[in-house]
Amino acid sequence: WNAEYGQETGDANAADKAKGNVAEGWIGWNMKSGKNNHRFYARIGMASGDDDPTDTDPKQFVPMFGDFHNRLGHGDFFQLSGNSTGLGGAVGALSGNLGIQGTGVGWNGMFGDRHEVGAEYWSFKTDKK
User: Structural domain of residue 31, as residue ranges?
Assistant: First the structure.
């Protein structure tokens, strides 16, 4: 298992205060027999979005580094970020201000020293209604 949480605070600029959140969690079970190893797991990741882009409290999470690539596999076209998901459906005030939540389940099998197969199912949604 693994759990991580991050929070951003401080001054985004002279007028705006940063208040973003990000979280990630994993739980899984490994089963090994000889050189074969199977792993079943569940994962969750979330990044806060900004509920009111016109105020001086941006609540979206802004990642400083793209460190989630190795964690989301092929699902990382949605970065855990509240301002770069591009979700919102409108240019301007709503554009990119919706956060994201992703849950996933998967299986990964390693056979011998050279073969690995796996599958994941992800479900993504915004954190704003």
Answer: 2-126
Q: Please, are residues 121 and 105 in contact by the beta-carbon 8 Å criterion?
A: yes
Count of Cβ atoms closer than 10 Å to residue 87 Cβ? 20
3-state helix, strand, coil in the chain (%, to 5): 5, 45, 45
Question: Model's pTM, two decimal places?
Answer: 0.65
The tokens describing 71, both together, are 């964690």
As for how many domains the chain has, the answer is 1
Query: Both tokens of residue 14?
Result: 């002279």
How far CA 61 is from CA of 28, 51, 81, 100, 110, in Å, comes to 27, 12, 5, 10, 35
R_g (Cα) of the chain, nearest Å: 18
As a whole-number percent, the residues of the chain with pLDDT over 70 amount to 68
Which pLDDT tens digit goes with each residue over 73-95? 555 555 566 555 444 444 444 44
